Please model this.
Amino acid sequence: MLDNHIYDLVNQLAQEHKSLWRIKRMYKEDSRECKDCLDFWESLEKEKEKEIEELKALIKTHLN
Model:
């Protein structure tokens, strides 16, 4: 069984993946006619990808 704080990290990773999926598959497509909004979603997409990599690295340190 995972310690609660490790479970929290794994759960957050899943939430970030879901959010990134929606940004890539829905939000960017919906905002294609508004450059400002599209720029926002693209910026947030990059941030989410970075957060996901950080979470994966942190989880990996706890599971090794």
Notes: The mean pLDDT is 96.
